Amino acid sequence: MAAAGLARFDADGRLIWANAVFRASLGGRPGDRLDALLASLPLREDAAAAAERLRAGETVALAVPPGEGRRLLIPAEGEGGDLVLTLAGDGGALQEDTGFFGLEDLLGDRAGEAERAIMQAIAVPLVVTRLSDGLVMAVNQPAGRLFGVPPDDVVGRSFAKAYYTEPAERERLLAALRDGAGGVDGFETRLCRPDGSDLWAMVSARRFRFRGEDAMLACISDISARKRTEQALEAQWDQSRAVLNGLGQGVMAFDRGLRLVAWNGRVTELLGVEPEFLSYHTPYAAIARRVGQGVAFGPESVCPDALTGSGTGPSAALEVPLPARPAPDERSWECTRSDGHVLECLIRPLPDGGFVVTYTDVTERRNAEREIIASRELFELAIRAAREGIWQWDVRTGELWLSPYWWGMLGYGEDEMVNTAARWAELILPEDRELSARMARDLINGAMGECQFILRFRHKRGTVVHMLSRAIRVLGPDGELFRIVGSHTDVSDRVHAEERAHAAREEAERALHDLKEAQAHLIQSEKMAALGSLVAGWRMRSTPPSASP
């Protein structure tokens, strides 16, 4: 395998150092700018675009003649914003590189001294080990300080496996090095020091020839502080997850990059995805696709259009659990699963640019609401059929409600309803206000549980409407009175009929009385006439006849 070319550029894009393979293949001297160097190379794209891709961590391919294999520039981030480039390929002849600048050719016997000077001048911990057995071949001072050992005590005397917490970790690194065509970046592992302490390290490694042997150059970054922070966050996340899993709602939280950072088990149940599918930093788009592929909602369950506009509230275009792109503002809507369950969906933005999506199964609530609406419609139809007005008075708040039919009995439409005690007092006849107030006091005080009496109200046309009022006490869960409910029935026709019957009865009674008086007078007159006749006859009999002359 051909040795890899290595070069390091500072944050301003100037070449710091390069090994012989890199210089022989691509040229370049310390101080040369990356953009200028790329402009002189046979690239498959614009030099400026290639430089931006390298700075972004993307690999750039060089244009090579057919049959000569591939040649790649592989970037890696160094300390202080430096850029480390690896020239890797699978074609060309082996090159026996023995140092970073071909020092044997340039300096002869002084090459070893120059190599050590270069190694010590680099601020990044560097370790060179022999591939065959892991013998430490070179170490700079930053690496010595990192492991707490003098470099001279380990070079040629120690083996790499002594610095791994688990010996198998070195084999894993070598496997990644082979898979990466002689280079690997971002390899995380645990290392240990001679004093027994350990550290988390991120390793960037390159395979190359060093002093005539196959070797590995490892750039080591101490990420122990970051790992401790991650472990602390993971512990907090475990606690948060326990809280989230106790919720009846499904919850997912995404960062500004649309990556999943928090969720609970309930959301997998509601969206119909496998629990093992969700993991830290799962992309939002991948979750949306998986939901669309599932049976809970079907292939039409991912909204193809972005959410636009502002404000909250359901939208007809949002009959899906996951929009293709989340809205920048708060949104709520409902969607229905294939099994009929209704989910209430809510997106809330977070201050850092992320957002939270919650899902609540509102199936029972919606069914109850439909039943309430149906019951209310049936109740209203029953009231209309019974031709009664319903009213209720909340004794705690003083709120009064009178049904539309109640107002209709007085000639008012629904747009003229004013459900207040003051308006009620205007409509009732003044003579009946005291009776109504007394009955209300008796109900409130518990002197009676229900009552029934007739009240008179003024119709819109000015006539008087007689209403039979029935009322009962309604107790709350605490056993205390909280409202009085009743009904009003228009009994004006009955009252008027009773009044007419009463008047007719009084008229008949008067006529009968007059008749009796006339009869008594007639009888008395007849008695007096008979008595007069009797007296006259008696006189005639008692008077002696006169003597004849």
Supply the key terms:
549 residues, alpha+beta, 22 strands, 37% helix
**Count of DSSP strands:** 22
Strand ordering within the main sheet: 2-1-5-4-3
Given as residue ranges, the uncertain stretches (5+ residues, pLDDT < 50) are 90-109, 300-318
What structural class do the secondary elements suggest? alpha+beta
How would you portray this structure in words?
The protein starts with a strand and ends in a 7-residue tail after the last helix. The radius of gyration is 52 Å and the shape is rod-shaped. With 549 residues, it is α+β, with helices and mostly antiparallel strands. A hairpin with a 5-residue loop joins strand 21 and strand 22 (481-490). It has helices spanning 20-26, 34-39, 47-55, 103-107, 111-121, 141-147, 151-154, 168-179, 224-245, 265-271, 284-293, 363-386, 404-409, 421-427, 430-445, 492-542, and strands at residues 5-9, 15-18, 60-61, 71-77, 83-89, 126-130, 136-139, 183-192, 198-210, 213-222, 250-254, 260-263, 302-303, 322-323, 331-336, 342-349, 355-361, 388-394, 400-402, 450-458, 464-475, 481-490. Residues 90-109 and 300-318 have low confidence and may be disordered.
Describe what is shown at a glance.
By secondary structure, the protein is an alpha+beta fold. 37% of the residues lie in helices and 26% in strands.
